[in-house]
């Protein structure tokens, strides 16, 4: 499993003790839910619960009528049976996941080679156990029912895992959970408090309820857990375990609302919208007696300038037939690659990226476009630099577009770079690293380095004073172009975190 995507679209199917200690019933559950794998775009995993019963239950409580003890003892599986079921789940195409409840179960976890470690809410502040689980080098998911943020942070510290290898689950430990006590906005709280961590949803709601599905789609949650079971004459189903039909209905609801929220089709939809709206726009027509020799009216003709093409500075200098339409190509208005227009479009994109990560900037700052091979090639080679401070030390934000390359270069100043969001590879003196969110990468003075972005990304840069001499590039043609021809700077006003060119 790739480290940076360990938890993306993972759906945990929690068997818990619903196998009832019956191997045939356990395999039937696995078989029944295996149909989901080819139907939905998730990596489904069967989850087991591991307890070393000889030591987990107090000697005086063994064989007692205590509810939990009775349930655990009546559904006990041997280590060999767990190994058989784990291998069976893998053979059916599932990820395998296990919750460890005590230190003596770690050996069984390793023996079964489970893909993911899950920590239950009741163990999320089990400090001795967490310390032991830190030794397991597997992607880990931490459930957090009832925990405060400071308690979660303490658990994360004990686990010694970063956000590429640890995900956090919101859940409510009420079985089943009433809708009014689902606390779904806690997901937003967890995201704000634990930036960079995948935040998932472990649900114990009534299996027939579909109400959480559209909310999860709207919150763009990509990691889920539900308890599962199947009908049997021999065993009953508890009130929070979903049958296959219940889960399919919930997933269908989720997928429908995901499609409503998705922007993956934005270019296609925007094209259709533009075609729909173009006939409603006013066209630009010629009249030498009108202000700027033009007027606006409908209907607009094919290829004609419309009101979105002309600003307050536009004047028609050609002498045309009265009331004739102004055609785009005839008046030099087509694809706008002026630096101001590019900057305005990029500024909007930068604004969205920074706001999504709650990055706040001062009231005024400088935006710098580095277009090493010209503005027409900026989407492939370049970087957007936000110059925030340049005194005894220098602070900048580097914003890369997806697929953008920043060529190899070096400079006098030392710098430390932190990835805030996105995916960026950094090469320092030929050593290539995939940057990890919130980790710092130090670039000493005069050391060659370059960047490649795989998606829209933000880096924070802290450096020594920037003398403004510019960088020296391995490709000498870039350096020879001079700073003025490959860098363009704009003063930016920040009004309530909405940026405007000054």
Describe what you observe in this structure:
The chain has 14 helices and 23 strands. The chain has helices spanning 23-33, 53-56, 67-74, 79-91, 106-112, 127-133, 149-159, 186-193, 212-218, 244-261, 266-277, 339-356, 476-481, 483-486, and strands spanning 10-14, 43-50, 95-100, 116-119, 140-143, 166-171, 198-203, 223-227, 283-286, 294-297, 364-370, 383-390, 393-400, 405-410, 415-421, 424-428, 431-434, 440-443, 449-453, 457-464, 472-473, 487-495, 498-501. The chain is α/β, with parallel strands linked by helices and 502 residues long. Mean pLDDT is 90; it is low at 332-337. The chain has 3 domains: 3-261, TIM Barrel, CATH 3.20.20.70; 279-331, no CATH class; 339-501, Jelly Rolls, CATH 2.60.120.10. The protein is globular and about 100 Å long. Helix 1 (23-33) packs parallel to helix 4 and helix 9 (212-218) runs parallel beside helix 10.
Key structural traits:
502 residues, 27% helix, globular, Jelly Rolls, alpha/beta, TIM Barrel, 23 strands, 14 helices, 3 domains
**Beta-strand content:** 25-35%
CATH architecture type of the largest domain: Alpha-Beta Barrel
Instruction: Label the overall shape.
Output: globular
Structural domains: how many: 3
**First-to-last CA distance:** 47 Å
Identify low-pLDDT runs: 332-337
Global structural class: alpha/beta
- What is the highest CATH level, the class of the largest domain? Alpha Beta
What secondary-structure arrangement, pairings included, does this model have?
Blueprint lengths: L9 E5 L8 H11 L9 E8 L2 H4 L10 H8 L4 H13 L3 E6 L5 H7 L3 E4 L7 H7 L6 E4 L5 H11 L6 E6 L14 H8 L4 E6 L8 H7 L4 E5 L16 H18 L4 H12 L5 E4 L7 E4 L41 H18 L7 E7 L12 E8 L2 E8 L4 E6 L4 E7 L2 E5 L2 E4 L5 E4 L5 E5 L3 E8 L7 E2 L2 H6 L1 H4 E9 L2 E4 L1
Helix pairs in contact: 1-4, 9-10
């Amino acid at each position: 499993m790739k480290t940076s995507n360990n938890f993306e679209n993972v759906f945990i199917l929690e068997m818990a003790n619903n196998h009832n200690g019956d191997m045939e019933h356990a395999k039937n559950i696995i078989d029944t839910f295996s149909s989901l794998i080819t139907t939905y775009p998730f990596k489904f995993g069967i989850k087991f619960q591991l307890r070393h019963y000889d030591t987990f239950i107090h000697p005086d409580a063994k064989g007692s009528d205590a509810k939990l003890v009775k349930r655990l003892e009546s559904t006990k599986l041997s280590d060999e049976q767990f190994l058989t079921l784990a291998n069976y789940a893998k053979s059916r195409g599932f990820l395998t996941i296990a919750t460890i409840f005590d230190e003596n179960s770690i050996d069984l976890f390793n023996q079964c080679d489970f893909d993911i470690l899950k920590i239950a809410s009741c163990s999320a502040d089990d400090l001795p156990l967490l310390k032991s689980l830190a030794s397991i080098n597997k992607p880990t998911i931490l459930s957090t029912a009832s925990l405060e943020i400071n308690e979660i942070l303490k658990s994360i510290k004990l686990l010694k895992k970063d956000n590429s290898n640890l995900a956090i689950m919101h859940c409510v430990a009420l079985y089943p959970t009433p809708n009014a006590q689902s606390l779904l906005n806690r997901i937003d709280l967890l995201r704000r408090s634990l930036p960079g961590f995948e935040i998932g949803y472990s649900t114990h709601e009534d299996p027939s309820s579909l109400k959480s599905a559209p909310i999860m789609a709207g919150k763009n949650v990509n990691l889920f857990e539900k308890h599962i079971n199947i009908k049997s004459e021999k065993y009953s189903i508890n009130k929070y375990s979903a049958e296959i039909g219940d889960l399919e209905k919930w997933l269908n609801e989720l997928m429908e609302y995901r499609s409503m929220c998705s922007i993956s089709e934005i270019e296609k939809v925007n094209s259709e919208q533009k075609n729909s709206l173009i006939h409603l726009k006013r066209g630009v027509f010629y009249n030498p007696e009108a202000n700027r020799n033009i007027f606006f009216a409908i209907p607009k003709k094919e290829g004609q300038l419309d009101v979105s093409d002309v600003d307050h500075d536009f004047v028609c200098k050609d002498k045309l037939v009265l009331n004739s339409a102004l055609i785009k190509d005839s008046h030099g208005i087509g694809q706008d690659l002026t630096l101001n227009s590019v900057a305005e479009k990029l500024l909007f994109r930068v604004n969205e990226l920074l706001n999504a990560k709650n990055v706040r900037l001062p009231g005024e700052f400088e935006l710098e476009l580095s277009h090493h091979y010209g503005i027409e090639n900026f989407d492939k080679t370049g970087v957007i630099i936000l110059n925030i401070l340049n005194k005894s030390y220098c602070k900048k934000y580097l914003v890369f577009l997806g697929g953008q390359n920043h060529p190899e270069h070096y400079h006098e100043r030392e710098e430390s770079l932190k990835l805030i969001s996105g995916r960026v590879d950094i090469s320092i003196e030929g050593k290539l690293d995939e940057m990890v969110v919130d980790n710092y990468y130090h670039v000493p003075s005069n050391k060659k380095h370059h960047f490649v972005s795989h998606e829209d990304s933000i880096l924070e840069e802290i450096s020594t004073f920037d003398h403004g001499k510019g960088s020296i590039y391995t490709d000498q043609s870039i350096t020879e172009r001079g700073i003025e021809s490959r860098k363009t700077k704009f003063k930016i006003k920040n009004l309530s975190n909405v940026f405007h060119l000054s």
